[in-house]
Design brief:
The protein is mainly α and 284 residues long. It has one domain. The longest helix is centred in the first third of the chain and has 45 residues. The protein is elongated and about 70 Å long. It starts with a helix and ends with a helix. The relative contact order is 0.16. Pfam families: S_4TM. Keywords: Membrane, Transmembrane, Transmembrane helix.
Length: 284
């Protein structure tokens, strides 16, 4: 993979990768703002309800407004930025891996916008993005890089989906516990505890399901590339890598995103695992 190693560390391609990360971070910030405010409402509701049912009703009303605002205002903006990020990432892959650009699934980003997003970024952080240390050549070299991306994302989606499921259960249990402790009626529980928690419960349960689905789809890409890597067939190589790239772009453009804090937490271990697997796949 010498050509991939050199291409991914070229300044213009490092800038593409940095811009994609910056745009994805903006998307995650918007998503995170929505989820954080929903969490604040869900955690505040039991405390406020234990002090005043009237105040709890105001929190419930605020939760109802937030439920619509987050979905009608924040979510469309976040998805638009995400499509731009996916477009830049796809341009990086096209330049580094030689894969076709799927412009119909992503939003084009101008060179000026890419430069503006990376003006003060340390590009060295994005060196060696793909595990390109082996001597494999096309098409195996490209398939191994695509596989590495699919596996990394699958593991992240699966982990975050479990965390979201646990958070949903914990918040629900907290509300029920507070209601029982304060001997509140079912009507009071529904109005001043459950209703303020609905934005979080709805977002978290939907996100957990979306991340589980994304993990399964990434796993399907991984399985297809594993099969190809075991017995690379030049006759089907172009179709295989093109199909994988198209599926990856679809998920990058429209799929759920893992927050940056979780990415930073798992990145050192995942990176080591990724490079070990890439070396093992090309070791006789």
């Amino acid at each position: 993979m010498p050509e991939i190693r050199a291409a991914q560390n070229a300044t213009e391609n490092l800038r593409l990768q940095a811009a994609a990360r910056r745009l994805y971070s903006r998307t995650k910030l918007l998503d995170g703002l929505g989820l954080t405010f929903s969490l604040a409402l869900a955690l505040a509701a039991p405390v406020i309800a234990s002090m005043s049912d009237r105040a709890g009703l105001w929190v419930a009303a605020l939760a109802g407004v937030w439920l619509f605002a987050s979905r009608l205002v924040l979510a469309p903006i976040a998805r638009r930025v995400q499509r731009s990020a996916a477009g830049v990432q796809d341009s990086f892959d096209a330049a580094v891996l030689g894969t076709p650009c799927g412009r119909s699934l992503a939003t084009p980003v101008s060179g000026e916008e890419i430069h503006a997003a990376t003006r003060e970024v340390d590009l060295d952080r994005y060196r060696n993005w793909y595990p390109a240390e082996s001597t494999s050549t096309w098409p195996l070299s490209v398939a191994l890089c695509q596989r590495a991306n699919a596996v990394w994302a699958r593991r992240q989606h699966r982990l975050y989906g479990r965390l979201l499921t646990g958070a949903t259960v914990a918040v629900t249990a907290l509300g029920i516990t507070v209601a029982i402790t304060n001997a509140q009626s079912l009507q009071t529980y529904l109005a001043v505890i459950l209703l303020p928690s609905l934005p979080l419960l709805l977002d978290a349960s939907e996100l957990a399901g979306a991340h589980r689905a994304a993990a399964r789809k990434r796993g399907a890409i991984e399985a297809a590339l594993d099969e190809f890597c075991r017995a690379p067939d030049p006759a089907t190589a172009s179709d295989t890598v093109s199909a994988a790239q198209r599926d990856l772009l679809e998920l990058r453009s429209r799929g759920p995103l893992v927050p940056d804090w979780l990415y930073r937490l798992v990145a050192p271990r995942y990176d080591d695992d990724m490079r070990f697997a890439a070396r093992s796949a090309t070791t006789p």
